[in-house]
What we know:
By secondary structure, the chain is mainly beta. It is built from two helices and 16 strands. Strands 3, 4, 5, 7, 8 and 9 form a six-stranded mixed sheet that branches. Strands 10, 13, 14, 15 and 16 form a five-stranded antiparallel sheet that branches. The protein starts with a strand and ends with a strand.
Amino acid sequence: MATITFDPITRIATIATPTTEITVQEIYDKARDYEDDADQMSQPLWVTAVGKDQLDATRSLVISLFMLTNARIAFDDRGGPSYEITQVQEGNFVGRTGDKDSAINHPIAPTDFVFPTIDQAVTGAAVTDTSVTADIAQMQIDIAAMEVVLTKIDDQQDGEHTTSQVQGKLVIRNTAESRRWEALIWEDEAQTIPYKGEGLETIGQLTEVAWL
């Protein structure tokens, strides 16, 4: 079982090293245990969830876990220099700025030398809108087939000044399907300092590009 530490100020629940994979059920259970503490009764809820309704003798709805009021999880910092892939599994995992019907907020906070992924699961779910099914299925990532490449900026000296010629870039290639995604990566959450290989803070939106 993973060890999770909840910070009521930052509203970040940190999953301790060496855990790299965690289920939405485990996040839910740990959050509920924390919320049940007498000192936390007056604080905003961290999570809510829907699902697990029985469809038939063998199938039930998957869990959809909502992190509430800007709550997020984070996998503990790694020491680098290589990045470690982490994953939230066995359910749908989303963040909200308030209750579960409020605006979307990313449910995972950035940490050093961690590349977090979410394996959104729809197995057994009663989905009637085929477009929704396709959208969620596309979010599923086969980690074994992926090649992740982080490219830092190329600094060039010009007299006493250093100029950044290109921005840091994240490239994910699925060689099994000849598909490729790219995103800009940054040293700081404000996305003003391009990635220089000294600690990844934020990742821009992944966009599928032509296979190279």
